[in-house]
Specification:
Layout: E1 2-3, E2 13-14, H1 44-52, H2 60-72, H3 78-92
Antiparallel strand pairs: 1-2
Length: about 90
Amino acid sequence: MQVFGPTQVHGPQAINAPHSLRPASSTTAAQPASQASDELQLSEPARLASQLSDIPAMRQDRIDSIRTAIANGTYETPDKLSGALDNLLDEIG
């Protein structure tokens, strides 16, 4: 079994001791501090997830209108119940 370190300091080594440091290769030589920069790349799902925090958790106006419709007895119509039943049957079957 080989264990790989998180950096180029450790190459693949056996899990048994002793471990030794390998010198950095010329392709990974350190750049001067004036040229060094950090870069962040977000995947599409991560970018979309960050946008979700901008959306309010609840739409209080919508909640209030539905509560009022339920209290008045006008929320559950035959069309809505039929649509809900059709959706349920589509998911089951």
